[in-house]
Automatic annotation (TrEMBL):
GO BP, one annotated term: DNA repair
GO CC terms: cytosol
InterPro entries referenced in this protein's UniProt entry, alphabetically: HAD-like_hydrolase_sf, HAD-like_sf, HAD_sf
Protein name: Uncharacterized protein
Species this chain originates from: Microbacterium sediminis
GO molecular function: phosphoglycolate phosphatase activity
Amino acid sequence: MTTRIETVVLDMAGTTVLDKGLVTGAFTRAWQREQGAERFDEAMRHVIDTMGMSKIEVFRGLVSEDEAQALNVAFEAAVAELVAEGVVEPIPGAEDVIRGFQAEGRRVALTTGFSRETADLVLRALGWEHLPDLTITPAEAGRGRPAPDMPLMALIRTGASSVAALAVIGDTESDVLSGRNAGAGVVAAVMTGGHASREALEAAGPTRVLASVVELPALLAELGV
């Protein structure tokens, strides 16, 4: 017997929000302001390799705690600058997918590696403040990806009946691993992030790799969930 998906957990940047260099562009500005040119290429590779994870945890993997905190503040300021410059747009069709799930009685949660302040800034830029049923950041859940905390918090807060009733979708390996670690009934990867290859996403073990989130309703219909 299949379990109907009751809660859909969608990543933001790269999955529902078009990432036109928002993360890498903000990191470039932040690193140059805080660290200069030294180790930039190494640091950028680390940021790309850990895409989808909590940003403060990513920065802690590069520099000392004090430097990581300063880098995080600079990163959030750079995100605000880029949002003001108009780099934030929705993935085509993403809003319709979210509204379609809600019309079917499913709850939709957006998760992110951003801080609450940065997440809200992006949501306001899109006019999405009231679109999802809830949004969750790593600090609110306890741990960021690939830990299962954010999907499980979404399950609890939406009142889903079981982990089998949970679908988790993202554009990075850490998104997929977070969904698998949570025991989600469906874990899908999407190719719209641009930082992970299909091979890398498939190696993380998703239910399916999709071209974009717009293919998700058809996948759930195909699976009968």
